[in-house]
């Protein structure tokens, strides 16, 4: 076994019910020659940290003739078999594969009538519940095999075979459509979330995607609920990151919510649903739709109540972030109490938030104080963050945090610190080849502003140049990606 043994990790990830079922399942096959894998299971299950030497020693003690590699193989196989049985009625994909496996067995035993009955029943269910195009193809291949094995040379038999081939052709076309949509969706996400997304080619990529037939197709023409969902998701992402009107973005997000809510087909996780609510909340904030914000916020809260583990942590993070953004925009006094609650959660020793989530919430709190012109408070929060937490340049909030920190130093009159921070940031971006034309121009104008203010020169021209830079349509995407919308409102107040 290796230092970080897969089997050890796998057993540690099993639930109590899964472990209990494995033992019950294994006891059915537990003969004198096969009990060794149960011994190994108990050894690994009781271990807190993996120790290869200890495993070998304990196994030899319990069963001197046992060979570890062989026992490990049997244990892994029985674990997979037991879990397959445990989940055969709980996971649709496993249940579906079992039906097909049974059909293959019936064909092998020449039970053609029963195989045909099972396959036809399954095909109807697949059409109505699963939209699994590959399964439709496989079912029809098996149905044709039934016809051919029975050697019925009738017109009706040939007609049925032909009908099955037509269904396969249609299913393959739908599968191609589904594949194309998923590929476009993945391409869009790659551009948005790739580490080099700060570069200028993001605009070109989006413009090329907008020229495709994606924008020309009515969603109703897309076959299949899952394909429609990812089609709507792709359009939302394109519209969002090209800053299309908010009402257009809301249409596709609400369509995604409807597709998930109104259909029992499992193609999106609870986290996917939560992300829809989170994005809708942001649009309702920007669109000033308080009633819809409240209604969607309640849905998100209900989802968080039943979520577990990492999913719960992510959804909880976005819940507080959106709630804080809403009240810091429209109800600043309520935002203060929320900020205190969030600060308490961040300072807990057993905080359920990741370091990146803590950074995001801290960023939101600093923006809140910055908007209230409490620049020293915002600066103290950011200085504490940079002192106690390592933030990579690839992190989503890195550039936004650094720029806001520079503005705070500027507003409290610490111009030397502001210039040092600005120069440090520029050099960092240059080393990592992330200094885009937009970022370079922005830092250049901010540096001119800080120098002018420090030497009591006129600063208005610099504010106007920064405003013009931010208002340029070619830079809107960059601003959205940098998460420094606060800079726009700040410079507008200065002009």
Overview of the molecule:
There is one protein chain. This protein has 495 residues and is mostly helical. Among the domains are: 6-86, no CATH class; 112-182, no CATH class; 354-495, Serine Threonine Protein Phosphatase 5, Tetratricopeptide repeat (Alpha Horseshoe), CATH 1.25.40. The chain is 76% helix and 0% strand. It has 24 helices and no strands. The chain has helices spanning 6-12, 16-27, 36-46, 52-62, 68-86, 92-108, 112-130, 133-150, 155-193, 201-211, 225-241, 246-261, 270-286, 290-306, 309-330, 332-347, 355-371, 375-388, 398-411, 415-431, 437-454, 460-471, 476-482, 485-494. α6 (92-108) runs antiparallel to α7 (112-130) and α22 (460-471) packs antiparallel against α24 (485-494). The longest helix has 39 residues, at 155-193. The chain is globular, with a radius of gyration of 30 Å. The protein starts with 5 loop residues before the first helix and ends with a helix. Mean pLDDT is 81; it is low at 195-199 and 476-482.
């Amino acid at each position: 076994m290796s230092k970080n043994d897969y089997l050890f990790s796998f057993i540690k990830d099993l639930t109590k019910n899964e472990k209990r079922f494995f033992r019950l399942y294994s006891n059915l096959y537990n003969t004198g020659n096969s009990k060794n894998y149960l011994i190994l299971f108990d050894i690994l299950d009781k271990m807190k940290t993996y120790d290869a030497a200890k495993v070998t020693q304990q196994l030899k003690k319990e069963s001197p003739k046992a060979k570890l590699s062989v026992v490990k193989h049997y244990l892994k196989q029985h674990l997979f078999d037991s879990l397959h049985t445990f989940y055969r009625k709980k996971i649709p994909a496993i249940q579906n594969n079992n039906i097909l496996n049974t059909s293959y067995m019936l064909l092998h035993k020449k039970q053609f009538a029963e195989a045909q009955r099972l396959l036809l029943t399954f095909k109807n269910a697949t059409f109505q519940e699963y939209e699994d195009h590959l399964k439709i193809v496989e079912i029809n291949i098996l149905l044709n095999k039934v016809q051919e094995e029975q050697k019925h040379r009738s017109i009706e038999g040939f007609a049925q075979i032909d009908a099955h081939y037509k269904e396969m052709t249609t299913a393959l076309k739908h599968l191609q459509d589904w594949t194309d949509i998923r590929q476009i969706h993945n391409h869009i996400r790659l551009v948005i979330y790739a580490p080099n997304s700060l570069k200028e080619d993001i605009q070109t990529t989006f413009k090329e995607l907008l020229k495709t037939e994606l924008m020309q197709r009515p969603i109703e023409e897309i076959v299949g609920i899952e394909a429609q969902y990812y089609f709507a998701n792709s359009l939302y992402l394109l519209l969002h990151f090209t800053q299309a009107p908010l009402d257009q973005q809301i249409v596709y997000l609400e369509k995604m919510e409807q597709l998930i809510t109104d259909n029992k087909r499992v193609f999106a996780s609870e986290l996917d649903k939560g992300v829809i609510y989170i994005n809708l909340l942001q649009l309702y904030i920007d669109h000033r739709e308080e009633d819809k914000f409240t209604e969607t916020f309640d849905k998100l809260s209900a989802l968080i109540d039943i979520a577990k583990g990492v999913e719960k942590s992510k959804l909880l993070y976005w819940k507080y972030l959106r709630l804080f953004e809403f009240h810091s925009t429209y109800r600043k006094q309520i935002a203060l109490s929320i900020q205190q609650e969030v600060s308490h959660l961040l300072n807990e020793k057993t905080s359920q938030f990741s370091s990146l989530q803590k950074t995001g919430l801290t960023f939101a709190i600093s923006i809140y104080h910055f908007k209230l012109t409490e620049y020293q408070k915002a600066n103290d929060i950011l200085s504490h963050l940079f002192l106690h937490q390592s933030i990579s340049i690839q992190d989503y909030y890195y550039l936004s945090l650094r720029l806001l920190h520079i503005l705070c130093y500027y507003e409290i009159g610490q111009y030397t610190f502001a210039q040092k921070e600005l120069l440090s940031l520029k050099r960092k971006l240059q080393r990592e080849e992330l200094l885009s034309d937009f970022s370079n121009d922005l830092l250049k104008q901010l540096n001119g502003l800080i120098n002018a203010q420090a030497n009591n020169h006129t600063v208005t021209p610099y504010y106007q140049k920064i405003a013009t830079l931010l208002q340029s349509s070619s830079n809107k995407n960059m601003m959205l990606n940098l998460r420094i919308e606060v800079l726009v409102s700040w410079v507008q107040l200065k002009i």
